[in-house]
Design a protein that fits this description.
The chain is an alpha/beta fold. The chain is built from 17 helices and 14 strands. The chain has an eight-stranded parallel beta barrel with strand order 1-2-3-4-5-7-11-12, surrounded by five helices. Helix 8 packs parallel to helix 10 and helix 15 runs parallel beside helix 16. It is globular. It binds 6-O-phosphono-beta-D-glucopyranose.
């Protein structure tokens, strides 16, 4: 008996802001991620530096047409390569492709009354192409893709009006794409609000009083939660049979040891990580968050009906990204800290660490699946997982990436273990199934894909695609429904 159920959704994950390109084509407006620069000199483990952005940076970005300095503007030009890329996904046997819709391609500033037809047509072409290969789309409605205009003139998600502007976009997506798409996600890694508020919610830190900034994030998050619940409501009304998921980063923390103080610290940090899915799945704020606001004197404004909307329209499934785990302790002094763009913590001596400081921990995935299932009792979907690594192209053009195969093998095994426990896992979409620009550093050299894209950190290259060894390996995994590891 195969461990993976019939219909398990094998595939890959992408996001428009990092792979689509065509930033100045088809009537697209500028978006927040178009302002993030290539961080050549950043220490790969320096989390804060990877995400730092000032209002001066944004002004400079708006005045610049440079795509080398701002690599997310070109991504890997899926915009002009989509047929070729989807053919490769089809060849691997993908059952699902996770992709996002760039809001500013449909509503360039977010304020227009009418959607941009050229943008709408582009995604329709993509969806039709996917259909040819029987690949189900899994649509993320918001993956670090707020129109820049809204970030600059509406304080990102801080202004409540953005909820309606977002729902206008969502409605158009359902109208036009509902017939092609069964699976939807509202906000990618909604918890990254605190890690990189600019890309997640259009908030640039130096525009606000430092002492108010955390409260502003909580307020903006409330608006995203309400928008997510209303988008779920609208999905139920407009696309019968479709399913909505939340999307969170599973940043599992282990206590450094059995010191009770460390145990409590890890417990609280993990509980905080799950507050987002608590709101989106249980439909209510957990008491520890309400108490935190009370302690800190925060006044999070809610309108009449908000609490009811959250309660009435929870998500149908829990999706999450999983890359690594970290270790926490009340006393960190003198200990080696590792992390990357997600969460930093003390180095775990029992597991290896990638070049970018991410600790590789398949058992943590098994742990996370148990944890989420026990908490929510809803189907789970791993919509991001993978290892960013440098790949070498040999003289004959081949690319040997056994490290990637090893990573996936161990993580897919972990999913198998969860399935053996009876945990319903809907599918698995490894991140960056085709190489694309890194979210945190805008590097190309941090590659995740089964498909190599000829492009370097400085924007040099032909954009040609080639298969890495892991391509054939994953193809076989899918063909054998997880048996051919
Ligand atoms: C997740 C994001 O946090 O991690 C993706 O949803 C991102 O957008 C991925 O690309 C990997 O991070 P990075 O910084 O290595 O690209």
């Amino acid at each position: 008996m195969t461990r993976f159920p019939e219909g398990f959704l094998w595939g890959g994950a992408t996001a428009a802001n990092q792979f689509e390109g065509g930033w100045d084509q088809g009537g697209r407006g500028m978006a927040v991620a178009d302002c993030t620069t290539y961080k050549s000199k950043t220490d790969p483990k320096n989390y804060a530096a990877q995400h730092a952005i000032t209002s001066k940076d944004i002004e400079e970005a708006m005045a610049s047409k440079d795509t080398r300095k701002y690599p997310k503007r070109h991504g890997i030009e899926f915009y002009s390569h989509y047929k070729e890329d989807i053919a490769l996904f089809g060849e691997m046997g993908f059952k699902v492709l996770r992709m996002s819709i760039q809001w500013s391609r449909i509503f360039p500033t977010g304020l227009e009354e009418k959607p941009n037809e050229e943008g709408l047509q582009f995604y329709e072409n993509v969806l039709k192409e996917l259909k040819k290969y029987n690949i189900e789309p899994l649509i993320t409605l918001h993956h670090y893709e707020e129109p820049l205009y809204l970030a600059n003139h509406y304080d990102g998600w801080y202004k409540r009006e953005v909820i309606d502007l977002f729902l206008k976009f969502v409605k158009v997506c359902y109208q036009r794409y509902g017939k092609y798409c069964k699976y939807w996600l509202t906000f990618n890694e909604i918890d990254s609000a605190f890690r990189h508020p600019w890309t997640t919610m259009g908030l640039c830190e130096d525009r606000y009083p430092a002492e108010k900034f955390e409260e502003i994030i909580y307020q903006s998050l409330h608006h995203q939660f309400v928008a997510s619940a209303l988008a779920t409501k609208m999905l139920k009304e407009m696309v019968p049979g479709a399913m909505m998921g939340c999307m969170v980063t599973k940043t599992l923390r282990y206590p450094e040891n059995c010191n009770p103080a460390n145990m409590i610290l890890a417990l609280k940090e993990n509980r905080k990580n799950m507050y987002y899915s608590d709101v989106q799945s249980r439909g209510e704020y957990p008491s520890h968050i309400l108490k935190e606001w009370e302690r800190k004197g925060y006044d999070i404004r809610m309108e009449r009906g908000d609490i009811e909307i959250l309660k009435q329209y929870p998500v149908d499934f829990i999706s999450f990204s999983y890359y690594n785990t970290s270790v926490t302790a009340v006393k960190e002094d003198g200990k080696e800290i590792v992390g990357g763009n997600l969460v930093q913590g003390i180095k775990n001596p029992y597991i290896p660490t990638s070049e970018w400081g991410w600790q590789i921990d398949p058992t943590g995935l098994y742990y996370s699946l148990i944890d989420l299932w026990d908490r929510y009792q809803k189907p789970l979907f791993i919509v991001e997982n993978g290892i960013g690594a440098r790949d070498t192209v040999e003289a004959d053009g081949s690319i040997h990436d056994p490290y990637r195969v090893d990573y996936f093998k161990s993580h897919i095994n972990a999913i198998g273990n969860a399935l053996d426990d009876g945990i319903p896992v809907m599918g698995y979409t490894p991140w960056g199934c085709i190489d694309m620009v890194s979210m945190s550093t805008s590097q190309m050299s941090k590659r995740y894909g089964f498909i190599y894209v000829d492009l370097d950190d400085e924007g040099n290259g032909t954009y040609s695609r080639s298969k890495k060894d892991s391509f054939e390996w994953y193809k076989n995994v899918i063909a054998t429904n997880g048996e051919g590891l």
